[in-house]
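Comment on both lines for my students:
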Amino acid sequence: MQLSEEASKPIINRLRRANGQLTGIIRMLEERRDCEDIVMQMAAVGKALDRAGFGLVAGSLKECLASGQSDDLDSGKLEKLFLSLA
């Protein structure tokens, strides 16, 4: 399964934002900022990564079904992908 450029754009943007959040978290640690603030940022970046993963799988499924390639869809493989995100 591969995503089109159009479908992958929002996922790439989400990952870039998460990358920025990670950079911010590292800076917060280096500056010895409050642990509660750092944990909140870590939770936010975790959610961003989860959403990017779900977006990737959902987008792939959507494109596969729209293009008529659903015969090639391996339900076991798809289930594994979803469960790996849980």
Q: What stands out?
A: The domain at 5-84 is CATH 1.20.58.1000 (Methane Monooxygenase Hydroxylase; Chain G, domain 1).
